[in-house]
Amino acid sequence: MTLDDVPALARGCAILGTGGGGDVETGTLTAVRAIDEFGEVPLIPLSEVPDDSLVLPLSGIGAPTVAHEMLMSGEEPLLIRDEVERTLGRPVAAVMACEIGGSNGVGPVGWAARLGLPLVDADGMGRAFPEVQMVSMYVAGRPVNLVVLADVQGNVTTVRPVDGLWSERISRAVCVASGASALMADYVLTGAQARGAVIEGTVTKALAIGHAVRDGSDPLGSLCATLDATVLITGKVVDVERRTGGGFVRGSLVVDGTGEDRGRLLRVEIQNENLIALEDGRARACVPDLITVVDAQTAGAISTESLRYGQRVAVLSWACDPIWRTERGLATAGPRAFGYDIDYTPVEELSHG
């Protein structure tokens, strides 16, 4: 991963962030500064991680609106690495993005550079999700074992939760106490434990998405073709509701259709990420499938905290990784996991319904 790779990665991660994961601007600054100071980062497939070596999944936890304004000190990955190695008694061999979406997909490049470690071409979501247990490692049944959080003040908190749900409850409480933003390592795994439990190739995918948006004469068309995405609506943002509490950003936006979509209204519900798109009371797309709001002209992603009245946007949706469509995957991150009393239907079926 070089300085030239970071802009494309940021564009791709912003798309995969489904509105959350933190604004990529912050992660981009972190990555560029770290590469400039500490050197380029080897990007390796999971197959190159030895069975008994530790993989450190890192991500920011908290409300994106807070993380955008309260920047990290830069010491957090060092504090977490040292605590993990002290607790588990072996060195960390590689960094991995816990979620490829948003700043949490770009930040690991900088964190890996600062730690002098390679970055694994994989993550635990294939997108962004708001809660700690909403990772492929939990769906695959891997034990949590260890969660370590570090904040900008230098506090380090080690948690040994009994399961993924408790890891969310305790980590969220620690995050709120830290000002609603912290860096976290969860599901620290060996190479052997990671195999079959993470979503591989997602850094490479984010780079491909970023190049598709930048290089094509029709950015939106190129993006849709790369993702095999459905355009749910093209129009203008006419209402944004956003509130921060409990370590999350919650709210909604309404898009008023223009052109061929004139006369239509699409409402998107948010919990850090875009969760469900509703039209006339009917779901047009829902988690765990991805829903992203992009600029109608440039196809650049618009994050939750950047939504504004009057923006000309397109709302896209496309299929999630197959692990999320399993019974345990849907129980973890399907619509009912977020309190919506609807059954999951794949976006490719809803878009033709």
Can you describe this structure?
With 353 residues, this protein is α+β, with helices and mostly antiparallel strands. The protein has two domains: 4-202, CV3147-like domain (CV3147-like fold); 219-351, Beta Barrel (CV3147-like), CATH 2.40.390. The chain has helices at residues 5-16, 24-38, 64-67, 76-88, 103-115, 136-139, 164-177, 191-194, 202-215, 219-227, 327-333, 347-350, and strands at residues 43-44, 54-62, 92-97, 119-120, 122-123, 147-150, 156-159, 181-186, 189-190, 199-200, 230-245, 248-257, 265-271, 273-279, 282-286, 290-295, 312-318. Strands 15-14-13-12-11-17-16 form a seven-stranded antiparallel beta sheet. Strands 2, 3, 6, 7, 8 and 9 form a six-stranded mixed beta sheet that branches. The longest helix is centred in the first third of the chain and has 15 residues, at 24-38. 53% of the residues are buried.
Main sheet: strand order? 15-14-13-12-11-17-16
Q: Please mark out the parts with pLDDT under 50 across 5 or more consecutive residues, or reply none.
A: none
Q: What count of helical segments does DSSP give?
A: 12
Structural class: alpha+beta
Helix coverage percent: 25-40%
Kindly report the name of the CATH homologous superfamily of the largest domain.
CV3147-like domain
Mean pLDDT across residues: 93
Largest sheet: 7 strands, antiparallel
- Output the CATH topology of the largest domain: CV3147-like fold
Based on the structure given, which CATH architecture of the largest domain is correct? Answer: 3-Layer(aba) Sandwich
* Alpha-carbon Rg, integer: 19 Å
Assembly annotation: single chain
CATH class of the largest domain: Alpha Beta
Q: Shape, please? A: globular
Order of helices and strands: HHEEHHEHEEHEEHEEHEHHEEEEEEEHH
Distance N to C terminus = 42 Å
Count of β-strands: 17
Strand content: 25-35%
Number of structural domains: 2
Pfam families: S-Me-THD_C (PF20906), S-Me-THD_N (PF06032)
Domain S-Me-THD-like C-terminal: 164-347
InterPro entries: S-Me-THD-like_C, S-Me-THD_C_sf, S-Me-THD_N, S-Me-THD_N_sf
Domain S-Me-THD N-terminal: 5-159
